[in-house]
Amino acid sequence: MTSRGDTPPGAAPRGRMPAGDGRRPSDGARGAGEPRGRARVRVTSPRTSAARTRNVSIASEIDEQTRLGEVYITSLMRSQLRLALGVLLVLASTLGLLPLLFRAVPGVSDVQVLGVPLPWMLLTVVAFGEIIALGWFYVRWSERNEDTFSDLLDGDEPGA
Q: Where does 29-123 show beta strands of DSSP type E?
């Protein structure tokens, strides 16, 4: 009988496997004292002490007001500003050119449509129609920008 600390003759000490060439011998070539299977090897990563990456959502980046969150918010604000400036440019170029048209072509004020002078018709019906259409366009596209941003926050594919 052996005590706990002793190893029987011909056996490897506890926790260690006998040294070998790492190959598994065939069943017929195995000696009586050799263990079945390969020697155990502890595999560790050289980066075990490296900082682990965190799974941080974009929403938390924005809530914590980090630099990355600021980039996302700035991106949304720029896309909304670009849209607003585009709509404003269309509105200003069409309505802003009407007075120039009236000045360049004085005969326009003599034209009557349904008994109303053409400049009045252009400044009321056409201008309000354009303002309503541009407002609808702006709201539709700004909601699309916000939906894309929201999908980005949720981790979904934009536009999917």
A: 112-113, 116-117
pLDDT one digit per residue (tens) for the chain, 160 residues = 555 555 556 555 555 555 555 555 555 555 555 566 778 887 776 666 555 555 666 666 676 777 777 888 888 899 999 999 999 999 999 988 888 888 898 888 888 888 888 888 888 888 899 999 999 999 999 999 999 888 887 776 655 5
Which SS3 state, helix, strand or coil, does residue 83 take? helix
Amino acid letter, residue 8: P
- SS3 letters across 43-106: CCCCCCCCCCCCCCCHHHHHHCCCHHHHHHHHHHHHHHHHHHHHHHHHHHHHHHHHHHHHHHCH
62: tokens are: 């924005």
Structure tokens at 16: 């260690």
Closest CA to 109 of 100, 101, 117: 117
Q: Where are the domains of the chain?
A: 58-154
Measured between alpha carbons, how far is 105 from 116 in angstroms, rounded to an integer?
A: 18
The answer to whether the pTM exceeds 0.85 is no
